[in-house]
Structure formats: structure tokens, C-alpha cells
Amino acid sequence: MINVVFGVDGYVSQLAVSMISMFESNKNNKIQVYIICLNLNARDQAALDEIAQRYECQIKYLSFDASKLKNLKAFFHLTHATFYRLFIADLIPEIDKVIYLDCDLIVEADIAELWGVDVTGCGNAGVIFNGKDTEQRLGVPGGKDMNAGILLMNLEFWRDNNISDKCIDWLEKTESAYMDNDAMNVILHGAQKGIEERWNLNPIHFKKYAEESEHPSRILHFAGAIKPWHKAYDFSFQRKYEQYLALTPWIDGYKPEEPWNISQAISVANQYYENGEFVQACGYYNLAIKYRVAETKLESAELMNVINQGLELQSKGDCEGAAQIFRQVMLFWGFPTAHMCNVYQFPQISQS
């Protein structure tokens, strides 16, 4: 039996996608799913249970004293659910090993391979990246940074060494950018085991979507503020996300979240332009201009004339010509006009 733990605080449809992708890729494995939750309503729980039963699996729901989180701060786009993994060893004391998974991922691998990794003498196994600032920020020699989104956790080690209490104590005394991720890298320094990067692949690091095929067995982890349920994310990965979402009740009425700033609008427009969908491209370039004008005055009357030329072409149905003019405006403002998987190459794309 493979024990898999998720933590959720509002990301229920995303959890369903992560869970169903895992089931689809692991039909020959027996999996016990645990979900840590504080405020899961009966309707959502019933929908998750139905998905699990489809694959002859059961879910055990874990709750805990929320007051344990009162002194912990969550930053950026993260919620307090990021801290749930720190309590797993105490929540299921009868279990000695689990795979922990975030809810913003797609599993397309046989997780029995991950489950089989030897974690004797280690607290966690996960993908280790060379964090340029990790040593300076945290004082961790070598600057090694294990991403906590996908972990094989040795719960026996956690209990024997009071890792949960040590992480909480560190967090209460330290204002840290990456919160529990940082805490584990500090407290478990020297007791973490690196595994292959395919177990925690962030698509933003691909230069193009085709690179995904280089990793046929993988977990795609959409870490960062922009996700595949946002319109600004790479369209190819949006389609992959929706492929699994279609197997859940949450597909009904689903629409990706529209851009909320100029960078996101340009990211969407660029993709439509490269796909030859010029009407849609113009619409999102128009939105980008709207956001820009709302933030600051246009630089000159000449620039306004250029924009008006584009709008005139658009009104006459020459959306390709209009889009080309709008793209020149975007370049003038310093924004990329070539689409890249890494949306974070756009300045301030996650800014609210």
C-alpha cells in the first residue's frame, strides 16, 4: 500500500485534478489517500470520495487544531495549507512513510518508483535545486534547496527527532520568504536525500512545450503564483490540466481566470498571435493597453497615434495588421512579444 497525503485549503478542484491524474497513472498500484483539511464542505468531500471510489480507493480525512497555525505567517499566493505537511507525522502516528503532494500538480508517473526510494536515516527525499541565495538567507552550507511540493517523508525519523516541533519553533522565530520549505531545509540539513528532477518538474523551466516529451514519466509541478487555471499560463499546459479536470465534476462551468494585469494580458495575447488567432490576440493586446493607461499616462501623442492606427485596422477587420502594431507598442514598453513557457520572464506578472 502506498500512502499519499494532500493538504487542501480552498484548492479543491485543483486537488481533484492532482488526485485523478495520480489514479490514471497508477491503476496497478494500491493507494491510500489522506487529505488534511480544515474547511471542506460535504458536497466537495462527496465529489472527492466518488472520484476515489471510481479507482477502488478510499480517502481518510485528517483535521487538526487550527490554533497551531496562529503564530505562522503565509506569504505571497500561499495559504496556511502550506504548513499542513509539518503535522503529518503526528496526524497519522501509525504510518511510518508517506508521499506528500501539493495540489498544483499533475502526476504522470508510476509513484511506486518514488515510494521505493530508501529513506533510512533521512527525514525527506525530494528534488534538490541549487538555490543561489539559500546559503546566504538560511545559513545552509552548499546552498542546497529541496522543494517541498513533492516529498517522500520518513515519518518515523520525524517523530524520533521531533522535526515538526523544531520546524514550528524555527518558523515562529524567523520571518522566512519560503516558510515551511525553508524550515525543513534548515532543520533537516544533512538529513534529506536528493532524487531525480522528473519527480518535481516545473514546466516554466522548459524553453518550449516540446521539452515535456523528454520526461515521459514525471510529476509536473506548477509552482508559482501563475497556474494552468490562469489564462496567462502556457496554453499547452492549460489543455493538459483541463484534460484531467474533464474527469471531475468541476469541469462544469469552468473558465480559466482572466488576466488581472498588463503582463498577464500580453502573455495571453502573444500566444494567440503565435497560434494565428489574431482576433483574440487583439482583444488581449487591447486589455494590456487598458491596464497600462490605468496605471500611467501614455508617453506621447505620437504613441497614441500609433495605438489608434492599430485600433482602426482592428475595426476594419485587419486584426493581423492591428496585432503587429500593438506588438510594437508592447516592445516599446519593454515587454516580450515572443511566448515562452516561463511566464515569469514578464515583469511583475504575478502582481495583483
How many discrete domains?
A: 2
| Class computed from helices, strands and strand pairing | alpha/beta
Assign the CATH architecture of the largest domain: Alpha-Beta Complex
**Strand order within the widest sheet?**
3-2-1-4-9-6-10
Total beta-strand segments: 11
Mean pLDDT: 90
Number of helices: 13
CATH topology of the largest domain: Spore Coat Polysaccharide Biosynthesis Protein SpsA, Chain A
CATH class of the largest domain: Alpha Beta
CATH superfamily of the largest domain: Spore Coat Polysaccharide Biosynthesis Protein SpsA, Chain A
Gyration radius (Cα, Å) is 23 Å
Give the H and E element order. Answer: EHEHEHEEHEEHEEHHHEEHHHHH
Sheet having the most strands: 7 strands, mixed
DSSP strand content: 5-15%
Distance between the termini: 43 Å
Short description:
The protein has helices at 12-25, 42-54, 88-91, 111-115, 134-138, 155-160, 163-173, 179-187, 235-245, 262-274, 278-295, 301-315, 319-332; strands at 2-8, 31-37, 59-62, 97-101, 105-108, 124-126, 128-130, 144-146, 150-154, 192-194, 218-221. The chain contains 13 helices and 11 strands.
